[in-house]
Every structure is written in C-alpha cells, then in structure tokens.
C-alpha cells in the first residue's frame, strides 16, 4: 500500500431545509456583507432570490455577481473580483454548479492575495487561507463544494487552467436537496454522470488510497442506485438527496486521488468548443474505459457491482464498458464528439493541452500524446 494523507477541513451540512442556516454560517465566519456569485439561469429560476431573502432575514448585507457563464473565463473572474472590492464584501456565497464555485474560489484567492488567476496555476501556489466561502450546490455533479480545485478558461490561450490548493476548499458546504429538484432532465443526467465519473476515475487512479476508495465506493453506490430515478423525476426527494450526497463523496474522493484521462481530455473539448463539462466527460468515458482495461487489476468488476449490484461470474472489462454505454443512451446523452461540434483538425491541439493536465499522470494506463490523439479519434 502506498503512503497517503488526508483531511476533511470543512463543515458539511445536509438535509431538506438546511439552507436556512446560511445567515448563521456567515455570522460564524465574521461576515456581515457577502457577495453572492451565481448565474442568470439560477436568477431566472428564483434560486438567487431565495438566497437574498435568507440574507435579508438574517441581517446580512449582500451584493450579487450573476454573470458567470459555463466554462468561466479569467475575464469573468476579474469582473467578479472588482465587484467584491467595490461592494465591501467580507465573504462569498457560491451558488450553482461547478462554474460559479470555480469563480468563487478564484475570487477568494485574488481578493486575499492579489494578482491574476494565472499566477496561481498549478499546485500549491496559494500561499494561505482565502476569504470565507459558503458553497451551495444546485446540481448533483461537480462536487466542487468539497474540492481543492478551481478550473478557469484562460482566454488568451483558449486553455482551461487549474488552480489546486487545499486553501480553496470552501469553509462550509450546504447540501439541501430542494436546490436540485427543479433541474431540467438533461442537466440532471449530464451532471449526475459527471459525478459518477469523478468517483470512477478516483477509484481507478494510480493515486488512490483506502480513504479515497471509501469515498468513491459510497459515491458509486448512491449514484448507481439513483441516477436513473433522479433523471426521470427530479422531484423524487430520496433520489435527489442520494445524488447530492453521492456527488459530494465523489468530490472528496477525487480531491485526494485525482482523476484520469477522461477529465484531462474533456477540458480542451470544453475550452475550444464550449461543450458542457459533464457532456464532454460522458462522451469520452467509454473510449477511455476500453483503453484503460489493459491496466485493470480487478477494479472494473468492482465498479460494475457498485453501480448495478450485479456480480458476474465470468466478468470481462468490456461488460463495464457496455453497461456505461447503455446507461448514457438511456439518459439521452450524446455519444460522439462529432455530435457536439468537435472537429478532427483540433485533435492535435487538444491532445497537447490534455497532456499538460496532472490527471494524465494519475491515469491507470500510462499515456503519451499519440495515445491521447487516438482516443480523441475513437471518440469522434
């Protein structure tokens, strides 16, 4: 067994109605003015107004930055930083999926330590704690409420940069199932699959440990047993809660075990073609699973069991691949990169970018750029 370390340095609250504790948590953080970072879609759905009402009822002043887009850019981060400084906020409420949370973490770094987000690219470059962040997920997908990553598009390079530091983990995470029960089915499907892939890649990672394995296994059990039901009926409170907790456990798993080629390859797809992160991951997963089967040490059979409850006497890794393909088809997700506008000409550039990701190093099967290019072609 390899050496490993872990810690769980935050407070996580789960349950219907736990959102009501937001003013209390902001007060505990010593903040009387918070910047709510979210997006226009959640504003239209009334989620932002719900946070505003809670702040007002609790006597917490608030300002809103709501121009976060999917695959947020460094320019978006700079605008949010300026908003934070001008309004005099002393904390951040990150409301949304991965995009608002990525922006909130980046803003937290810059208003505390200065500079530009590119200055912190890579691992361990954030020199100390950041302003208090309360994360409220509105999808059961990214697990960003418990992770140490912020992923931002550098517009000049058309490249998704990653800031990795445990200082980025939000101080509080509020997991209220009511916040995800109005998702469109397509978003429930793609974000749920994203959470599943987090757990799968963490479980297969070369950096996996008993701690990350425990988190990944519970995540897969919860997601495998509830993804279909939640996509079919988002008002299913039990399925919504299970998906939210499963996504959280998956986030903790990959925060400590990293990911693999699926995520390394999906980031360039999103940066260059604007494809939603969960959709890009879903398309790439079966191809990467087939490629990684050569390195399987028995974990593919365990993955199939965790996701389906089935034990196959004459198991072959292709059985897991086939199960995943069937699931993606049932959920109505795209299955080829060509369906979402990716072009063959971009493959060399995407592969070069993918090779810059530390996730390639954690992938169970060693890969060079030629391998990544071939995987993209197969996924076309």
TrEMBL record:
Q: Where is the Fe-containing alcohol dehydrogenase-like C-terminal domain?
A: 189-380
Q: Which InterPro entries match?
A: ADH_Fe/GldA, ADH_Fe_C, ADH_Fe_CS, Alcohol_dehydrogenase_Fe
Q: What is its EC number?
A: 1.1.1.-
Q: Does the keyword Membrane apply?
A: yes
Q: Does the keyword Membrane apply?
A: yes
Identify the SUPFAM superfamilies for this entry: Dehydroquinate synthase-like
Annotated Gene Ontology MF terms? oxidoreductase activity
Name all Alcohol dehydrogenase iron-type/glycerol dehydrogenase GldA domain ranges: 9-177
Pfam families, per this entry? ADH_Fe_C (PF25137), Fe-ADH (PF00465)
Q: What is this protein called?
A: Iron-containing alcohol dehydrogenase
């Amino acid at each position: 067994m390899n050496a490993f370390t872990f810690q769980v340095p935050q407070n996580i609250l789960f349950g219907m109605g736990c959102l009501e504790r937001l003013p209390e948590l902001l007060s505990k953080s010593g903040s009387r003015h918070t910047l709510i970072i979210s997006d226009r879609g959640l504003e239209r759905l009334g989620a932002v107004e719900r946070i505003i009402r809670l702040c007002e009822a609790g006597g917490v002043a608030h300002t809103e930055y709501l121009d976060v887009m999917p695959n947020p850019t460094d320019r978006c981060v700079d605008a949010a930083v300026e908003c934070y400084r001008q309004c005099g906020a002393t904390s951040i409420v990150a409301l949304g999926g991965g995009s608002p949370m990525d922006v909130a973490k980046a803003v937290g770094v810059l208003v505390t330590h200065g500079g530009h987000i590119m200055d912190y690219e890579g691992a361990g470059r954030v020199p100390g704690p950041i302003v208090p962040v309360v994360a409220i997920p509105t999808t059961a997908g990214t697990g960003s409420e418990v992770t140490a990553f912020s992923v931002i598009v550098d517009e000049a390079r058309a490249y998704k940069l990653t800031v990795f530091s445990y200082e980025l983990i939000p101080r509080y995470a509020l997991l209220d199932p009511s916040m995800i029960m109005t998702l469109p089915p397509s978003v429930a499907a793609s974000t749920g699959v994203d959470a599943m892939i987090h757990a799968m890649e963490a479980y297969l990672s070369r950096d996996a440990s008993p701690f990350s394995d425990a988190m990944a296994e519970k995540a897969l059990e919860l997601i495998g047993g509830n993804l279909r039901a939640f996509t079919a009926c988002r008002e299913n409170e039990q399925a919504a809660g299970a998906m939210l907790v499963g996504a959280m456990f998956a986030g903790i798993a990959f925060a400590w075990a990293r990911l693999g080629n699926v995520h390394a390859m999906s980031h360039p797809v999103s940066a260059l073609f604007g494809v939603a992160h969960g959709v890009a991951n879903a398309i790439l997963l079966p191809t990467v699973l087939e490629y990684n089967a050569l390195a399987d040490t028995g974990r593919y059979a365990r993955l199939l069991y965790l996701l389906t409850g089935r034990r196959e006497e004459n198991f072959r890794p292709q059985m897991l691949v086939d199960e995943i393909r069937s699931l993606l088809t049932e959920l109505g997700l795209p299955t080829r990169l060509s369906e979402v506008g990716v072009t063959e000409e971009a493959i060399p550039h995407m592969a070069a970018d993918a090779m810059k990701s530390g996730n390639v190093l954690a992938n169970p099967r060693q890969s060079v750029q030629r391998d990544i290019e071939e995987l993209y072609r197969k996924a076309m």
